[in-house]
């Protein structure tokens, strides 16, 4: 995986969730997000 900023990582994860064909990529991105301690969606 290429090096991404936190913002790029979250945006890529959101896009992968919207796409039905990118489920494996979404899982990889989610693992990296959890390692960095980020929240991909705002708490409402």
Overall description:
- With 44 residues, the chain is mostly helical.
- Helix content is 61%, strand content 0%.
- It has 2 helices and no strands.
- It is globular and about 25 Å long.
- The N and C termini lie far apart (31 Å).
- The model has no long low-confidence stretch (mean pLDDT 87).
- InterPro entries: Sda, Sda_sf.
Could you name the key traits of this structure?
44 residues; mainly alpha; 2 helices; Sda_sf; Acyl-CoA synthetase
Structure described in brief:
This is Acyl-CoA synthetase. With 44 residues, the protein is an all-alpha fold.
**Class per helix and strand makeup:** mainly alpha
Shape: globular
User: What is the H/E order?
Assistant: HH
Q: Number of helical segments?
A: 2
- Please indicate the count of domains: 1
Sequence stretches where pLDDT stays below 50 over 5 or more residues: none
**N-to-C span:** 31 Å
Oligomer: single chain
Rg to the nearest angstrom?
10 Å
Count the beta strands. 0
Mean pLDDT: 87
Instruction: Report the sheet with the most strands, covering strand number, pairing sense and barrel closure.
Output: none
Approximately what portion of the residues adopt beta-strand conformation? under 5%
Helix content: 55-70%
Pfam families: Sda (PF08970)
Protein name: Acyl-CoA synthetase
Organism: Mesobacillus campisalis
Topology (SSEs and partners):
Layout: H1 6-18, H2 23-36
């Amino acid at each position: 995986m290429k090096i991404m900023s936190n913002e790029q990582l979250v945006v890529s994860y959101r896009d992968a969730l919207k796409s039905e064909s990118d489920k494996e990529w979404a899982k990889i991105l989610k693992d990296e997000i959890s390692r960095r301690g980020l929240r991909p969606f705002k708490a409402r």
